[in-house]
Amino acid sequence: MAHDHPISRLGRWEGYDVAEDWSEVRGGESVYVIRLEPDRGYLRCCSNCGARTAAIHDLVDRRVRDLPVFEHRVELIVPRVRVACPRCGPKLERLPWLDAYARVTHRLAESVGRLCQVMTIRHVARYFGLDWKTVKELDRARLQRELGPVDLEGLEVIALDEFAIQKGHRYATVVVEPMRKRVLWVGRGRGREDVRPFFALLGPQRCAQLRAAVMDMNASYELEVRRHCANAVIVFDLFHVVAKYGREVIDRVRVDRANELRNDLPGRKIIKGARWLLLKNRDSLRPGEDVQLEELLAANHALFVVYVLRDALKNLWDYRHAGDAARAWRSWYRKALRSRIEPLVRFARRLRPYLPGILAHCRWPLGTNLVEGINNKIKVIKRMAYGYRDDAYFFLKIRAAFPGVGR
Ligand SMILES: [Zn+2]
């Protein structure tokens, strides 16, 4: 009778047949319960040595969740078999569709993992009627299994970047292989000792093979790379330098100007509202915004100067010959000092010691939008995670989002 059961043919619980099935209502949900029974003729696999035997030592009932059918949740009652292994004695059977002590089948775990790539844990848990913790653990185990240990062989260039775990509170560091767009490592903190574990993982030999490290103007990263990787050139990436310029120069000049216009309310309002207009890339301006920008710059000389010098600063990253870039830098630096605009002069003086790291970009012209892209993706993952506090899981999600392309 059991072999003919249509559910048995659909469910394909290898080694088992359906003994009986019924539905019941639990907590307002309809649950379809299927009691399985071991197929007596099936050759079972010893989980310890892999030997095959049909001899059953004993059975223990387990309740296991499977994929839902129609509007019903599905619960299996599985008598788990301990085989009488001729070599090992009584041992749990190894099943191709259910792990030892697992409370969900492989296919349910796989569906959970797939949905966790696009949905929050909370939504996946609600969808399958599973516990939040169970869903997270299933996804964590899947990521761990799929990602495996990171491959660090033949690494020549790395990029280091920091990101906030909680707004303004805790920080973390991500290490990326920019060529293959691959996240290599994520760790809590952004200080020297926080990133040291990465270099320990890399080991002295692979550290010595590293030829360039791209980063923000962050002294901890720089010092730590210099300490471990004697042959690596430090490269400062455009995205960070320009972002810093936006915050420390353009924003400062804009706020100062707004304060000067205390008695000109309409003018003050325009300047106060122009933050994004000024920080945006020129080519991502919307129709009309270009006119607005031109008017703003024409009426505010200091803003005009710092805006033009931002574009000139960006151009430094376009040079492919260090000599040309150095010449362009000297010209930029002279203009900055001559402007007598205080935030600009200060920024230029602070930037000067980093010049070698800026010129190194000519030899290592790496796409800086990668760092920006990873930063944005991390924000999305963080939003999806609804601020829960499991760093290890969060970091796995980041690695999974950048598994690397090509080889
Ligand atoms: Zn065995």
Tell me what you see in this structure.
By secondary structure, the chain is α/β, with parallel strands linked by helices. The chain is built from 16 helices and twelve strands. The chain has helices spanning 6-11, 106-116, 121-128, 132-147, 192-209, 219-228, 238-260, 265-272, 275-279, 289-299, 301-315, 322-339, 342-351, 355-359, 369-384, 391-401; strands spanning 16-26, 29-38, 44-45, 52-53, 56-69, 72-85, 89-92, 157-164, 171-177, 182-188, 212-215, 233-236. The strands form three sheets. Strands 1, 2, 5, 6 and 7 form a five-stranded mixed sheet that branches. It has a five-stranded mixed sheet with strand order 10-9-8-11-12, sandwiched between helices. A two-stranded antiparallel ribbon has the order 3-4. Helix 3 packs across helix 4 and helix 10 (289-299) packs across helix 11 (301-315).
Please state the CA-atom Rg, rounded to the nearest Å.
30 Å
Structural class: alpha/beta
Instruction: Give the low-confidence spans.
Output: none
Q: Total strand count, please?
A: 12
Number of DSSP helical runs: 16
Proportion of strand residues: 15-25%
Instruction: Characterize the overall form.
Output: elongated
Small molecules bound: zinc ion
Q: Report the order of strands and helices.
A: HEEEEEEEHHHEEEHEHEHHHHHHHHHH
Q: Helical proportion?
A: 40-55%
